[in-house]
Amino acid sequence: MMSHFETCQSPLKNIISYPTPRDQEERYMSLGFETSRAFNMNYFYFKILDDYERDRVRHLEQFDEFEEWHLKCSHYVLIMSVKGIKAGEQLTRLDSLLPSTNGWKWESLLTAKCITSTHLQRFGHASACSGSGDIVVFGGFGLDGKQHARLSSASLVSNYERECGGAVNCLNLPIHCIGATSDSIPSLIFHSLTALGNEHFLVAGGRGSPLAPSSAFYFLSLKYNEHAGDDASFLNESKPKKDVVLEWTELEMCGDPIVGRWRHSASLISTEDDDKCVFLFGGRTSNFVLDDAVEINVKTRTINMLENVGVVPGARHSHSAAVYNQEIIVSGGLTESETALSDVYVVQILMRGSKKAAVWEKVDLVPAIEPRYCHTSHVCGDFLFLVGGIQMIGGGCGGLTIINMRLHSAISFHLPDCSPGKPILLHKHTSELLWDRDKRTGRILIIGGGGTCFSFGTHINCGIFIVELDREFALAFN
Known about the structure:
Blueprint: H1 2-7, H2 21-30, E1 35-40, H3 41-48, H4 51-58, H5 66-74, E2 77-82, H6 85-90, E3 110-116, E4 122-123, E5 126-129, E6 135-138, E7 141-144, E8 147-150, E9 154-159, E10 168-173, E11 175-177, E12 192-197, E13 200-204, E14 217-227, E15 241-250, E16 254-255, E17 265-269, E18 277-281, E19 293-297, E20 302-310, E21 320-324, E22 327-331, E23 344-352, E24 355-363, E25 372-373, E26 376-380, E27 383-387, E28 390-391, E29 396-397, E30 400-404, E31 409-413, E32 430-436, E33 441-447, E34 450-453, E35 457-460, E36 463-469, H7 471-477
Parallel strand pairs: 11-15, 16-20, 20-24
Antiparallel strand pairs: 1-2, 3-36, 4-7, 5-6, 6-9, 7-8, 9-10, 12-13, 13-14, 14-15, 17-18, 18-19, 19-20, 21-22, 22-23, 23-24, 25-28, 26-27, 27-30, 28-29, 30-31, 32-33, 33-36, 34-35
């Protein structure tokens, strides 16, 4: 943003000296004003505008750029400074929207690096880790030839030996359609990609434009033919190469009807019959936000709408879900009214009479975590990792929050920027947590991420952002 205004020959002259709303308040107080309040535009929009006006704005047109809207509003402040006792008494106290101090934030325990890959310069995509440790990435929005567009391409990320410090490689992944032509591969964003085991995956939902949600399901299979040879697309050419293809099949489903959706969550669940089932929750359509729970049986190709029982979460999209033992943990998200959520729920799929139901329970955390959405999540042992996302309180991208599911406690860390001039964008990304239990070290691979701002253009991360988790870090949250 600073570079944009400098290019326009209108630099932001005070941003270095007064970088936060609190600094601006102190600036005016030092000039003799008796009362000063600074608040960013998110505060103005959500706390000062009335419900009628916010509802009117939301329904002006189809809109799906929530992240860029909220990030941009967090960068602008209104400042009210007054002199005089009566004026001061009439000025309603407007608390600055400053970062929360919940938990501890230890940047020194995290190291990071960026690896550039044109294949992974995308956002709104989906990814999943195969049984062999390779990561499949599909769809999203990125560079297609010489212009940005929704993508129908796939990539493969290999983390050899799955150990901390191992080489990370990336190559373009050809797609072979079964029973159809390559033209049938959709260009999707905000879909889900769920690993089913044995190099199989399920693609669900997503959208083209906000008026074109997808209700289709696709079955994907990785096929390997290892060989040695030259391939310039690899980031590390000292490693063995793999000739890989992704087989693509559209599934004909039966059972309950389902509406097309995007920004939902999808998690693999186990059944008594050992069928491969995927649990879908929430998301949004062209007209409303969803709170339904859906079981997808991949073996029988059946859609089963589940009854929600217990302490049921409200409708949401852009939340995250991760499997924890026999449960699924759902965290955060954004409501119909654009309220970011800080709640955490666990859900189990249980029989109630002759039918299955989604049985929900809320997790009360101490301290409470910051509201966030468009993040990713992973489970390691009894710990839930929340990676990135948009934090409405802090006015920017979230870092790394770790929740102890046994103690119901939470701790947060800043993620270091790889470059102050071009920081990592921790939204519309995907991530994978790779952990070595014996060495008590690991790494988080943050893949892609970014967005298109209506004022400042398209900004996409360089490829992979690798956060190393060393032994000192492991001791900090154990």
